[in-house]
Design goal:
314 residues; single chain; 26% strand; 5-stranded antiparallel beta sheet; Dihydrofolate Reductase, subunit A; 8 helices
């Protein structure tokens, strides 16, 4: 997942006099914990602002963006544009399930907004007044605040601060619940197309498992990204585009019970759970807003958990 991560003052600045305008050791620890083991992309000036002993950032794949063709550095890959840098990182995302963190500076953040799927901000409770680098203003129609946590100020922190996480606001899907690189790749295609992946006319384009049963109100198929430890993981998808319980037609409930009985008989499961995602996906934990049920039966001796609520981890 492409995640923008930054520390921002109350008046929107991220830098002053070509440096970070505060000392926040707690935020540095937060940044290290979040990005450790993942990919970090930054502009040349951000790279050069890092103390030499921290270049490259350890245990992370470092990619530096610069327009200077002669620029070379040890410990980092060099890209001529953000687009090229993201292409370099694709293999790690899709094959190794790593995140890609955009870590600055201001122009790189601005360029990354159309590509980002999550934003992690440390809101520093101070005003800079005059700085030389700003964080781009977020459009609240495009970004949902999904988590806000008070930071714990220590003696090594200049100011109080909060940790905020934003998720991209899209019509039919929600990136906060994406669980794997392959799922992420499909979700990006859906984002570009801008239509509902669970509506019957689109389902076969994105969902590679066959439809095993079709009723008047519901379609039944296997989940192509099942939870770990599963024995059976079925999706029961509304044939009509619906996002809330009130959108269901009167006969849908009766048919649903018959489908559950049928699945139980055909699969031979002796126990499990039924998960129903509806409404706001940040509350339901859904990656697709289209109404659907999930029937999950774990393998004996394992656990297969059904998550409710968005994943605000970064």
């Amino acid at each position: 997942m492409i995640i923008i991560i930054a520390a921002v003052s109350k008046d929107g600045f991220i830098g002053k006099n070509m440096a970070i305008p505060w000392r926040l050791k707690s935020d540095m620890a937060h940044f290290k914990e979040a990005t450790d083991g993942h990919v970090v992309i930054m502009g040349r000036k951000t790279w050069e602002s890092l103390p030499e002993k921290f270049r490259p950032l350890p245990n992370r794949r470092n990619i530096v963006i610069t327009r200077k063709p002669e620029f070379k550095t040890e410990g980092a890959e060099v890209a001529s544009s953000l687009e090229d840098a993201l292409k370099f990182a694709e293999k790690d995302e899709f094959e190794k399930d790593k995140n890609v963190y955009i870590i600055g500076g201001g122009e790189i953040y601005k360029a990354a907004l159309p590509y980002a799927e999550k934003i992690a901000l440390t809101r520093v409770k101070t005003e800079i007044g005059e700085g030389d680098a700003r964080f781009p203003e977020l459009d609240n129609q495009k970004w949902n605040l999904i988590s806000k946590k008070n930071g714990k100020k220590t003696e090594e922190d200049d100011y109080d601060f909060d940790f905020e996480t934003y998720s991209l606001s899209l019509r039919y899907i929600e990136f906060a619940a994406v669980r794997s690189g392959n799922q992420l790749k499909t979700m990006r295609t859906i984002r570009q197309k801008g239509h509902c992946p669970f509506c019957p006319e689109n389902l076969a384009t994105y969902h590679k498992e066959p439809i095993t049963y079709e009723g008047d109100y519901w379609l039944v198929t296997d989940n192509q990204w099942p939870y770990s430890g599963k024995n059976v993981h079925k999706l029961i998808i509304s044939k009509k585009h619906a996002e809330d319980i009130k959108d269901l037609e009167p006969g849908a409930g009766e048919e649903l019970l018959e489908i559950v009985k049928r699945i139980e008989e055909e699969t031979g499961i002796t126990g499990g759970g039924i998960g129903f995602r509806f409404g706001n996906p940040l509350l339901s934990g859904a990656s697709v807003k289209h109404l659907h049920f999930q029937i999950i039966s774990p393998q004996p001796g394992t656990q297969s958990k059904f998550y409710i609520g968005g994943n605000d981890s970064i």
